[in-house]
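To illustrate the input format used throughout this study, we show a single complete record. The first block contains the structure-token representation of the backbone; no residue identities are included at this stage. The design step must infer an amino acid for every position from geometry alone.
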């Protein structure tokens, strides 16, 4: 799709973010998932596992997925939520809005599926839209509503551990890396064959590099969040070690204060 055509429906986003997305074989980006872990994987069957053990009793702690049981309870409702999650994730990043046709073309969603999901989200008031006439035809530009933002946050909390587990099982920095795996290498070579000039090749590889930089920035943000959480847990453990007898009320109060402190920090940044 040319930039001239894209100017009709929110060119600012595409022009600002073009470098993030390789223009060749967009359906198979180099590192398509956010959960990238650079931990060396243990040999098959190695024991003990290199990951921290679960608590000896009680529910699993909030920073890891449960060690046993099916990782993804895939009911029909689960599939529906994942579809909603993906569409809301895309639309939430586009404040100027996007049409169903653009979702279909850019992200390769089947037309019937995308229209059904958009209608569902619109009926549930998770999406808003405005109609714009372009070349004599009315187009619906969808944006996420405030209610939709709350629903999206709920889905992120609900599915975060499941997605992290999937990434741990098949880390994208390994399985989707053309320098490590045969299929990604073949995909990259096909993209090179599509280049007709030096400019095309530079455009492709700069796009891949820009995507990696974007992923690395997200990893750095995750690392900061984990370090922040670790520091707060250090405070909780230090408080527990000072106690002569366990006082759950004091610990709960401390954790609530830490949460309020974090909220204040985020408000200042805004």
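Output of the design step:
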């Amino acid at each position: 799709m040319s930039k001239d055509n894209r100017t009709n429906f929110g060119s600012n986003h595409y022009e600002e973010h073009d470098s993030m997305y390789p223009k060749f074989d967009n359906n198979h980006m180099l590192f398509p998932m956010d959960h990238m872990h650079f931990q060396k994987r243990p040999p098959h069957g190695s024991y003990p596992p290199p990951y921290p053990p679960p608590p000896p009793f009680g529910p699993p702690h909030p920073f890891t997925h449960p060690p046993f049981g099916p990782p993804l309870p895939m009911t029909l409702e689960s599939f529906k939520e994942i579809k909603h999650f993906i569409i809301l994730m895309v639309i939430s990043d586009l404040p100027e809005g996007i049409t169903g046709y653009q979702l279909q073309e850019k992200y390769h969603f089947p037309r019937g599926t995308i229209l059904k999901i958009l209608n569902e989200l619109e009926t549930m008031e998770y999406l808003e839209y405005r109609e714009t006439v372009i070349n004599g035809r009315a187009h619906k530009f969808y944006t996420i509503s405030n209610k939709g933002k709350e629903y999206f946050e709920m889905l992120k909390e609900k599915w975060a551990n499941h997605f992290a587990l999937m990434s741990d099982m098949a880390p994208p920095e390994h399985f989707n890396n053309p320098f490590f795996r045969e299929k990604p290498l073949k995909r990259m070579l096909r993209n090179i064959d599509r280049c007709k000039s030096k400019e095309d090749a530079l455009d492709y590889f700069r796009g891949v590099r820009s995507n990696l930089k974007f992923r690395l920035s997200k990893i750095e943000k995750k690392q900061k969040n984990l370090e922040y959480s670790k520091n707060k847990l250090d405070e909780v453990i230090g408080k527990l070690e000072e106690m002569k007898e366990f006082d759950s009320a004091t610990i709960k109060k401390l954790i609530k204060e830490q949460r309020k402190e974090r909220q204040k920090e985020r408000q200042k940044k805004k």
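Structural context for interpreting the output: Residues 1-61, 64-70 have pLDDT under 50 and may be disordered. The first strand starts at residue 127 and ends at 134.
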